[in-house]
Every structure is written in structure tokens, then in C-alpha cells.
């Protein structure tokens, strides 16, 4: 798992030098959700608020995200992708797909199906709820 994580971090840097794996993940989440608050990002990924704040600041400075007032609560700022953010995310996503395709192209179909099943199982795990 450590090697997998290291490889993912390294490949994120090769895909776009300004986009760390954390930044890529945050952009993907913002796209998927149609925007959210920084505190929601921190809670969802179990990250410290200061870590998210630094990442958000960097993404804002590069013009990949912007803050907008929540139309229902003007005290709240919601993070959204900019058009540049959408374009970078699409480019990196396509590069990642191509890299996965190249890496898995020679695998037999049965191995790919097993691998996909294991990934689905791994990603669907959630911690047990406290009974107390």
C-alpha cells in the first residue's frame, strides 16, 4: 500500500507540476459535489483544517478554484472550480486514465475483473459504527 501511495503521489507531479495528489483529490471532490466549504473538505478527508487551508490557498492563487458566497447563507463561502480548474482536472484525469490503461493493457481479463472487484471492495469499506 505504501508503494501504491508513493507511486500515486509521484504520478500526480508528473501529470501536472503544480498539482499535488492532495490538490488533485480536492479538485475532484469539488467537481463531484459542485462545490463545498473548506471545512467539509477537511471533514471528508480527515485532514487538519490548516492543511486544507494551505491547499485551498494554493489552488486559489493558481486560479483553479474560487470562493463564492453561499446563496442560502451569506456568512458561508463555498469553493468552486474555475474554468481553468475544470480544464486542468480533465487533463490530469485523462493522463491518469492513459497511464492506468498502459499499465494494465497486458493483464488477462480475469485478473482485471478480480483486481476491479478487490478495489471496489476496498473502497467501499467504512469503519464500524460505535454501538455505545
Provide a concise account of the structure shown.
The protein is 65% helix and 8% strand. With 132 residues, it is mainly alpha-helical.
Describe the structure.
By secondary structure, this protein is mainly alpha-helical. It contains six helices and two strands; from the N terminus they run ααααββαα. It has a two-stranded antiparallel ribbon. It is globular, with a radius of gyration of 17 Å. It starts with a helix and ends in an 8-residue tail after the last helix. The mean pLDDT is 88.
Note the topology.
Elements: H1 2-15, H2 21-33, H3 38-45, H4 49-61, E1 65-69, E2 77-81, H5 83-104, H6 109-124
Antiparallel strand pairs: 1-2
Helix pairs in contact: 2-5, 3-4
Strand content: 5-15%
Give the mean pLDDT. 88
Radius of gyration: 17 Å
Largest sheet: 2 strands, antiparallel
Distance between the termini: 32 Å
Name some characteristics of this structure.
65% helix, mainly alpha, 6 helices, 132 residues
